[in-house]
Amino acid sequence: MNVEIPSIVIQPCNQLFRLGLRSLWNYRELLYFLAWRDLKARYAQTAVGLAWAVLQPLAMMIVFTIVFGRLANLPSGGVPYPVFAYAALVPWTYFSKSLDRGSFSVVAEANLITKVYFPRVIAPFAAVLGGLVDFGISFLLLFILMAWFGIVPGPQILALPLLVMVTVATALAVSLWLAAFYVRYRDVGAVIPLVTQVWMFASPIVYPLTMVPSEWRTLYGLNPMVGIIEGYRWALLGTEAPDVFIIAQSLVLVSILLLGGLAYFNRVERSFADVI
What we know:
Blueprint: H1 21-26, H2 28-43, H3 52-71, H4 81-103, H5 105-108, H6 110-113, H7 122-130, H8 132-148, H9 160-184, H10 187-201, H11 217-220, H12 224-237, H13 244-268, H14 272-275
Helix pairs in contact: 2-7, 3-4, 3-8, 4-7, 4-8, 4-9, 4-10, 4-12, 7-9, 9-12, 9-13, 12-13
């Protein structure tokens, strides 16, 4: 008696624009495993464990407060400078670390990618989502600082979940492009630290948006982190509401980067196993 053994043939997709979100959902358990493994490996055999999620932005906040708040005497919109700086450092630290982990995520999974099939886009997704634990821990210190300085958020704090989602989407959008480029061009690894450092000072972290001349704000708003950081300060600290045009500009740019990044990543992933 002949028994036909079913077989599965995996072929590259020839569609010009494909997001591949269904395959991402089908492999959600692998996504969870990779994100959890990254989190455990990051804090394995460390003396302070998850406290590192707080120590880095806390140390930067102290330095920025001394240098820019005390010595340079930069304005902070009527908010104590430590809270002003830390409210921006929380999303920025998550974003910059996501770029670092996300850009190397595909190459880091080289042994897995060359042996079995799974949607390669899971690698940058797991790297970005794995940082949400650190993100949440950093928020705890932010709320403690707000309580210390007597800052009580208003009803605009309801916008915080939306800001978190936009922050994650921004980190994922940029990580997808960098991860795809890094597979072919290892120079990306040398460029990323420089880009993130310049990007930080091109964002309103140590200074308020009001210091940017009005004629430059449209161009300045092309940096999606501008609207995000100003949104966090408004939602948590009650500062002046960010310009609607800058927020809309950031949302449109992030949407384009994310959809384009997904399409491009899924388009070139067929060659990853050959060149990685």
